[in-house]
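Protocol step 6 of 9: fold each sequence in the batch and record its structure tokens directly after the sequence line. For illustration, a two-sequence batch is reproduced in full.

Sequence one:
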Amino acid sequence: MDARKLARILLAVVTLLVAMPAWTAGCGAPGDVEADADQVAWGVGFDFDPFPPRESIDFAMDRYAKDPSSARARDPVSLGEFFGGSADSMNISRLRVELLKPNPRFSDRPVAFLHAEYYDGDMYWNNRYKDVQLFRLVDSTGTRMNPFPEAIDVPQEGSSILRVWTDYRPVSKGAPSDMPDSTLRTEVARIAVWSYVSGNVDGPASNGSNGGFARFTDASGRKFWRGVLIDAGAAWNTPDAGQRPWKTNILGTGSVKKENIPEDVVNGLIQIAGSSAVDLASRSRFANIDDGAKDIVRGIRGRAQEVLDNYGIHWDPPM
């Protein structure tokens, strides 16, 4: 059974990466979830906000970290209940969906999160812990369109919660039909660059199930597609040369050109490239800024520098 079907099933609607195996460089938590990858009936009968504002997402995560019971809008539900189908997983007992109270100043509808218990207690090489750390690092740079799902670590539970995205379409299914070519090239650049910099050896350039597009909405209510990354369980490694953005050809868009890389991505890379290992580990909020944490962020920093150098983008070395 292909474990990455999990991404296609949960994340045919979600971004939330469940504990899928990634037998690479110390990564891995066993667990497959298999169902109809094209199913669209999800969340039926549940009241939740498909396009929650960031203020509601942060409010829900922060409140859950302090007191899970008071943060809930209702009792947790199984994956099968929420996603409208059977879910078969070696790790199913460690997974559930949480519907949490939003920030009442911005919304009155609950926010949906995937709740995943860590596997085997190894924080550095736990798949879902990587998702949390990568979201935090990119978010700390002020990147407006973070490709990683909003997520937090809940150490007292040995778990994480990750925000559920709407209308996720993986690269393996092709580009959304209503996505203009210019937008497609920009969003492909977003996921190709961040996947490589994160060190994901199983990123969308090699596995079309681990990156794609989710639908978002702006303040005016306009809906649009944005490039996103799922299942960072194989991150913090060294991708092969074929996954360098200037070597990829995702969805036939060819190698990533400098003019297609979004400005917020460039700004984020410049910050990462010019930061010390201690600063980057702090931005990621590693519980212990030890040699392991510093080695991880040095790898991320080195790949950010490599990308900037390749495209001739200036950055200032760390002090």
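Sequence two, same batch, same settings:
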Amino acid sequence: MSPDVEFTTKAAGLLLRMQAEHRNLVVLLDDTSYYTNSNVMARENTPTWPVDLLSEKDGVRVYINPVLRKSLQTAWVVIDVLDFADDSFSLETKFGKRFFKSAAS
């Protein structure tokens, strides 16, 4: 069974702003070997490497690294936003924000 994906109100609002600039906006949950915000990436297009479609929410496709999917033991994933931008290539850093996967059960 795949976990359900939810965006917080703040994350959904940011995604709406981003969709105005990025017509093919996708979100990728990737395995970085660290449980930090760096495992959520907003991209212009679907990655060219193997990924699984996890969900489509609010017009945004959410993909997951197949390795991470096998180890994800949760009923849902909540994606939220932090008010800072790091050196990530994720698209939301342009808005001074960073997506992260918050705790879920």
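Proceed to step 7 once all outputs are recorded. Observation for sequence two: Residues 62 and 105 are 18 Å apart (CA to CA).
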